[in-house]
Amino acid sequence: MGNIAAIPKCFYCQEDKNEILIAESLRTDMSVYHMKVCDIVPCANCEALMGRGVILITVDGAKSEDGWYQPRYYNKRRSSDPDVLIPPNPYRTGGWFVVSDDFVARAFDTISEQVLRYRWSFIEHAAAEHLGLFAESERMNKEKEKNA
Ligand SMILES: [Zn+2]
Fold first, then answer.
1. How far is the CA of 78 from the centre of ligand 1 (A)?
2. How many A from CA of 44 to the centre of ligand 1?
3. Which of 6, 40, 85, 90 would be 59's cystine partner, CB 3.0–4.6 Å?
4. Where are the beta strands (DSSP E) in 30-88?
5. E-assigned strands of the chain?
6. Could you read off the pLDDT of 119-143 as tens digits, one per residue?
7. Pairing relation of β-strands 92-99 and 54-59?
8. Beta strands at 54-59 and 21-22: parallel, antiparallel or unpaired
9. Distance 80 CA to ligand 1 centre (A)
10. Rg over CA atoms, the chain
């Protein structure tokens, strides 16, 4: 028998979620879900951040799996099962920012409406650098240290 419970990770911040998944049957091994991203429902912290701004996560498309941005679904066991999206998993480069809606409207141009609706987006590392996100977050961290 495997584990009958698992603690999943948040898709956005990749921290442990404050939730426990319990197997529907004792024969189900939940260890495959333990410490893994199982869905794209944000953790409480990310949900709060999405209420105040938009989360941007930096990625390197060249180092990511081909077609990572295309929607993929888990294999259904029965045709009546709902379509469940596999969370996209591009190569993350470590940049993680929360920006204002105004910033998104200016920086994302034609797709800004979509990004504002979803409250998060992946962004190419080079684009985040170009937009000054790393420099700004470094400046803010220095400011925080000074005032600590
Ligand atoms: Zn989170």
1. 31
2. 7
3. 90
4. 54-59
5. 5-6, 21-22, 54-59, 92-99, 120-124
6. 999 999 999 999 999 999 999 999 9
7. antiparallel
8. unpaired
9. 31
10. 18
